[in-house]
Design brief:
GMP Synthetase, Chain A, domain 3, 2 domains, four-stranded mixed beta sheet
Length: 298
Amino acid sequence: MNTFELLVWQYLSFVEFTGYNFVIIFLFAIGVGALKKVDFRMQRGTYFLNSAFVVFGVSIGQCIWFFLPNSIVGDYVFVIVLIDILIWALTAYVIIVLAKARSNDAYGNSSYAALAFIPFVSLWLIFKPSKDDYTTKMPSLLSGNSAAFIGLVVLVVGRVVGDASEQYIGNQITNNTNFESQVIVGQKFIEYYAKTDGVERALEYYKTLEEPNIGEPIDDITMFKSLEIFKNTMTYKYLISDNSITGFTQEQRDIWQSYICNEMSPILEYGGKIVLHYYSVTVPTLAYVSADKEVCDI
């Protein structure tokens, strides 16, 4: 990964934090608020309706994350990141314009637009009546109680669509991404974590991919019992239920070592070491196979 790619992936990590969008909106809002002048006025019903449409639009816009796995595989994840930033920048712009117009109507100037960004206090912009008679003619559906009612419906629909879309996208990515794409996505995350936080963090991520398989049988006599990480080494422990087995041949050990070299090379490439430890209730070590970058000649 080059510097630009690392920045893009840093953003993907940033997105994992709840409320990341509010940080982006706030930063853009500072600039827009300082530069954008708004002279018109907006009544509270109309303001609420437009704010509801903002929520609805953002909910639809976040469907871009459905394309994240494909963008990683196709190496254009930066496009998804840029679109997401653009969505929040545009959101900040619209909020500033609406808030300044509402402030003009409620207070006679736009100085109170910042209230729109303060939790709970922002409700004051919605409920504060106009400071004088509002003379601008607007369709009845876009002002007053009608606008407030429509806005409430749009707001509820927007939230429902947003929550449903988030769950659907999560399920689609988890359950319907083909194996080849999952491998590429996993390798990209491993590379990112290895280059930014070190091989141990990359191993921790790799472990999350393997954890659903812990406790599952590998074959008739082998169970994947546990997965342990110590520094740069990840150890797979397999319990053999056939107590008549007292050890494995060198040929079998070589097969397992070749498997590590061929299938786990992304981990080895960044300094990780993989160990396969086979044991039974009667024999503590039936086989202990390890491989790293040097052993696999990577």
